[in-house]
Amino acid sequence: MEFHLRLILALFSVVGVVVVGHAADLPSEIYWKKVFPSTPMPQAVRESLRPERRKEWKPSNLGQQRLDFPATVSVLHDDVVRSMFFLGKDLHIGNKITPNFPYNARSTFLPRHAAESIPFSTRELPQILNRFSVKPESLEARLMKDTLEHCEAEPVPRSEHHCATSLEAMVDYVASKLGKKGVNALSPVIPKDTGAMQYTVSRLTVLGNDDSSLACHKSNYPYTVFFCHTQASTVPYAVSLLASDGTRVTALATCHADTSQWNPKYIGFQVLKVNPGATVCHFLGEHDVLWVRK
Prior knowledge:
Residues 1-23 form the signal peptide. By secondary structure, the protein is an alpha+beta fold.
């Protein structure tokens, strides 16, 4: 199923949004600058604002993986997703690691008033699928259902989550948790189409802790939805990686130390063959956003 550009443009037209080239700020960009005047917008976020840059929705197996949701068979057998997990003891300078950085689900933000006019619940899934011309038996329909179920589920112990269906909603949620001043928004810097490569960890920087950071993961949905969450005993890192051919990646990773209450079938445990209680780390996807209080 292709989520065509004309559908996004039609939604923008209905709500009276006019896109004038690349130079003019969209209302969502203006709102970002109003709330976070000293926080530059990551390129990964900016790419999801311009409808002409995303011609169709392209789902990805890399999405939010809730701690209490068992990993699906398809995800467990996805080598790209599996490569994103590693143990805390493996995160040190000089260590070699072989991630295959995937793309996130490709989609475009809708303005807040457009997003809020569209149903967003499992109860209304048939209506949503019809609106976006998605066949109920399709892969896209299953992924949309998964996203809605993740958003509606009760938070796991010592965590909190919120699904932001617009950039404005994400900005408001982050501001309510981290404040409006001294906040950084970071996304990985990953060269396109690198594929699976072996890298050496050349630099490692601790960016904060669970009280001063939160992550927003781009979800599988026809328009951009971010699954934003906090989790106790989580440490975020900037990880500089260098390949033998000179390719450099500035990756972002989070390590979870308190995993004793997590579902034993969590994908990280199964991939790494460890039990709850182990320190599990994973890289963030290309269009995920890590928010950190300076």
